[in-house]
Every structure is written in C-alpha cells, then in structure tokens.
Amino acid sequence: MQVFWFFPTHGDGRYLGSAEGARTVDHAYLTQIARAADSLGFDGALIPTGRSCEDPWVTAASLIPATKRLKFLVAVRPGIMSPTVAARMAASFDRHSNGRLLVNVVAGGDPVELAADGSWLQHDERYEAASEFLQVWKGVLAGDTVDLDGKHIKVQGAQQLFPPVSKPYPPLYFGGSSDAAHELAAEHVDVYLSWGEPLDEVARKIADVKARAAKHGRTVKFGIRLHVIVRESNEEAWAAAERLISKLDDATIARAQQTLARADSEGQRRMAALHGGQRDQLEIAPNLWAGIGLVRGGAGTALVGDGATVAKRMQEYADLGIDTFVFSGYPHLDEAYRVAELLFPHLPGRQQPGKADGFASPFGEIVANQHVPKLAAAS
C-alpha cells in the first residue's frame, strides 16, 4: 500500500472558499511540505497542473535537492506539449532525481482553459491525441527511433539520446471516467487513478479497465485520489470537516458549480453528482465526505475519521485492487503530520514517523532533566 501526498501549488489554507486562514504558497512553504512528506515516509507527492497552478515541472525540479526518497508525480499534457520535448523533460528529471519521477497523464480538463492554451480538440479527440502522444513518448524513452504519421501527431526519426533511470520509462499514471479514458488507460498506462467514489462505483471502474487491458494483453495497477481528514476521534474529524467549509456561503458554492459545469469531463460530472451542490447530505458513503467538491474542481471527496477508521476504509478500497492512495488535506503542511502520526500506525508495514532515521524520545517533550533517557555509548 503506497501513500502519496500533495503540493498545493494553487493555494492552501484552513478554510475552503475563503481568504481567511489562507497561506502564501511560495517556494519556502513548498519546501517545508516536501521535507515533511519525505521525512514522514510518504512514498510520493502529486503536483497539480493548470493555469491556476505553478508550473509542475519547474516546481518539482526545484524540490529535488530538498528531498531524498520522495517521488514526484508530475503532469504531461498531450495536445499542449510535444511528445519528444516532454520525453526529454522526463528523462532529465528522472536522471537528476535518480529515478524519482512518476508521470501523470492529463488529457482532459476545462475546454475554456484548453482553448487558452491552444488546444481545440473535442473530448474524444483529446484521448486519440493522447494515445498518439504516448506511442511516441514511450517509444523514444525506451530507446526506439519512432516514426508516426498519426491523425494528431506526426514525427519522423524521433529519438531520446539521454535515457531515463527508470526502465523502460518513468511509470505512467492516469485518471478518467469516460469510455475513451478507460480505453487509453487499458492500452498505455501503468496505474489507473480513480477519484474517490463509493466502493461499488470504484469497483465497476476497476473491472472495466481490467477487462479492456486484458484485450491488449496488458495488466494495470490501480490507485485512488482522495483528501483525508484524520483526527484522534471520529467526532473531532467530522468537526474538522465542518470547519473546513464553515466560511462557504451558498453564492460561492453556486458560482463554483457553474464554473465546474462547463468542463466536458465525465469525472467532474460524477463528482458534482455526489453532492448536487447541496451541503445537507455530504456523507455519501461511510466516512466518505463530498464537501470539498462543493467548490474545488477535480478530486472532491475525503475520508473522514480517526486513524483506525480511515485505515479500515482504505483497506476496503485495497480489497478492490487499489494499492496507491494519493491524499491531500488542508492545510497541507499540518495535515501531512497528522496523517503520519494518526493514520500511518494503523497501516500494515508502514514505519511510524520519527523512528526511521533518528532518535525519538519515548517521553515526548523533555520536561525535566531526570527524564532524559541515556543513549547507549557507541561500540
């Protein structure tokens, strides 16, 4: 079971939809999050993409020296980026980070934002273009010389002269809920990511992608993208969830939903359907809360509860075939520690924070000299 964290390059704070409690997300703050996620034992971290975010490749590259083990899940945008240029970026990042690159394929999105970036393709055409993109991208990183005369992409003699550390190429992650998205996942990607939906819906997605992948002679791994609100008790966790949206008014929710509705994303439509823009029935499955999706695009659900309860819900997803959990929480620096301290001890095989690399006092904060434990002399 792998657990990833998140870099909030679009903003961070204690409340959704409000400037109150907002934090300045600059390089110093992102470095704090990176060092925390690295030292606490998160396996990787997702960096979002879009015009409301800092550039994910520049951001991720700047954080390589601040980390030792953490892997970076960074977006490529077929239809906006050249596949050979994207391959060179991936190879250089993977080499400079000693194999710590994971690649998030983002084929969908907001048509208004895509048009501003020069992409005018319709929904299914974007996935056609993504398939051609990945044929070139994967081929050159695997060491092949690629010629492709496609509908959307044409290259001749494409090569990658500097190979990546990861073989045959950095692992590909991807999420999407439409038929076109599932077909792309089945044909090309290594890990299919679902947004957080009830178990039966996630199970249907997994079954469909598995069946499609089998037709291509492939197997695919599965992950899930969720927020998490974990506290020492279930009551505290639900109170924290309510506080997170306590500054939201109905007008803000309505404006956000109107903007999100313009996306031609099946996944976004499914997220919106979970709450219907209303805040009265947000627990859509046991401990699965849709409040974040009231104003946030993309992943809009959170697991809410104490550590043991959240771990139990994670295991239910794991029983479906999920082995990667991509988490986030507001604010992201503080919540990284909460997740590590309150949730990690309930996950099998995961090291408790503070135990792996250094000395952690069994007494917590030292309150008197006579409580300082004596360290064994070096032999």
From TrEMBL:
Role played: Catalyzes the desulfonation of aliphatic sulfonates.
CDD domains found in the cross-reference section: Alkanesulfonate_monoxygenase (cd01094)
Pfam families tied to this protein: Bac_luciferase
One GO MF term attached to the UniProt entry: alkanesulfonate monooxygenase activity
Organism: Vogesella oryzagri
Listed EC numbers: 1.14.14.5
Annotated ranges, domain Luciferase-like: 1-323
Cleavable signal peptide: none
Record keywords: Flavoprotein, FMN, Monooxygenase, Oxidoreductase
Entry's family note: Belongs to the SsuD family.
Stated name of the protein: Alkanesulfonate monooxygenase
PANTHER family the record matches: ALKANESULFONATE MONOOXYGENASE, ALKANESULFONATE MONOOXYGENASE-RELATED
Reaction equation(s) it catalyzes: an alkanesulfonate + FMNH2 + O2 = an aldehyde + FMN + sulfite + H2O + 2 H(+)
UniProt xrefs under HAMAP family: Alkanesulf_monooxygen
Annotated NCBIfam families: alk_sulf_monoox, PRK00719.1
SUPFAM superfamilies: Bacterial luciferase-like
